[in-house]
């Protein structure tokens, strides 16, 4: 009947005592910890170093700000230049606007000039065609209709 006893040992209640003292589980836990511990330690050290660097950087920024304030106070100019700088910026903006307007106007003038040249060439070609047509149609008719016109004496 020891077979029945072996089947009873598989229940969860009977294994709770062995669960805490399982040598396989302990070895597995130690193996995982030995794999993860260096990475966690390295990450922790880098985070600590980053925080120290940030504190040092903040201190350097604060000292630089103090130095810049001292320089600004020592070089304080009796003239207020901000108004002049604003005027210069506004003047520059106006110059850019006028330059853009002039550029657009130049482009329009170039297009108009091109259109005029095209129209001029078109009219010239139409006049050439019509004169050729007119000359070819009138000349034979004038010879047939008025054959003596070339031999008529001048009335001057």
From TrEMBL:
Biased composition, class Polar residues, residue ranges: 147-156
Molecular function in Gene Ontology: SNARE binding
Pfam families noted in UniProt: Snapin_Pallidin
Chain spans, region Disordered: 119-156
Superkingdom per UniProt: Eukaryota
InterPro entries xrefs: Snapin, Snapin/Pallidin/Snn1
GO biological process, one term: lysosome localization
Keyword Coiled coil: yes
Keywords linked to the UniProt accession: Coiled coil
Cellular component GO terms, alphabetical: BLOC-1 complex; BORC complex; synaptic vesicle
Similarity field: Belongs to the SNAPIN family.
Protein name, entry field: Biogenesis of lysosome-related organelles complex 1 subunit 7
Organism in which the protein naturally occurs: Trichogramma brassicae
């Amino acid at each position: 009947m020891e077979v029945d006893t072996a089947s009873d040992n598989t229940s969860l209640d009977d294994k709770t005592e062995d669960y805490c003292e399982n040598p396989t589980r302990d070895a597995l836990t130690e193996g995982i910890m030995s794999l993860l511990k260096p990475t966690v330690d390295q990450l922790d050290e880098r985070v600590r170093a980053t925080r120290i660097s940030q504190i040092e950087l903040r201190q350097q920024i604060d000292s630089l700000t103090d130095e810049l304030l001292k320089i600004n106070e020592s070089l304080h100019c009796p003239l207020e230049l901000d108004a002049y700088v604003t005027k210069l910026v506004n003047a520059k903006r106006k110059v850019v606007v006028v330059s853009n307007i002039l550029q657009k106007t130049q482009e329009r003038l170039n297009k108009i000039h091109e259109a005029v040249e095209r129209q001029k060439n078109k009219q010239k070609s139409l006049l050439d065609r019509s004169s050729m047509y007119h000359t070819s149609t009138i000349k034979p008719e004038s010879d047939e209709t008025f054959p003596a016109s070339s031999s008529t004496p001048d009335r001057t």
